[in-house]
Amino acid sequence: VQLVESGGGLVQPGGSLRLSCAGSGFTLSTYRMSWYRQAPGKERELVASINYSGTTRTYANSVKGRFTISRDNAKNTVYLQMDSLKYEDTAVYSCHAPAVNYWGQGTQVTVSS
């Protein structure tokens, strides 16, 4: 059972990235899913969550209006669209299935000029 993130990388301030979290051996379509991030020297922060159907989404104040969480249950994948990226968005981003406490391995996002 795995959650596999992809899509991280290096981007300039103001740029965009889309992260993906795919279930492997795990059908995530019936679960609420979340994205977390952790920057060096900082505590892990809940960035966004989405319910199983995609009808309810919540965001940290720090990303509200810039990030969008979504899901495609047919593809067994959850996404995090990140726009207007800032230096302070630099972190390792991980997806999480709270009900079963599954974590992905994380993907690095670096915002730098």
Please tag this protein with its features.
113 residues, seven-stranded mixed sheet
Element layout with pairings:
Elements (H helix, E strand, L loop, with lengths): L1 E5 L2 E3 L5 E8 L8 E6 L6 E6 L6 E3 L7 E6 L4 E6 L8 E7 L4 E2 L3 E5 L2
Parallel strand pairs: 2-11
Antiparallel strand pairs: 1-3, 3-8, 4-5, 4-9, 5-6, 7-8, 9-10, 9-11
Q: Can you summarize this structure?
A:
It contains no helices and eleven strands.
Write up what this structure looks like.
This protein starts with a strand and ends with a strand. It has 113 residues and is mostly beta strands. Strands 2, 4, 5, 6, 9, 10 and 11 form a 7-stranded mixed β-sheet that branches. A 4-stranded antiparallel β-sheet has the order 1-3-8-7, with no helix packed on it. It is globular. The mean pLDDT is 96. It has no helices and 11 strands.
- Unreliable stretches (pLDDT < 50, length at least 5) are none
* Rg of Cα set: 13 Å
Number of strands: 11
The end-to-end span amounts to 37 Å
Pattern of helices and strands = EEEEEEEEEEE
- Chain oligomer state: single chain
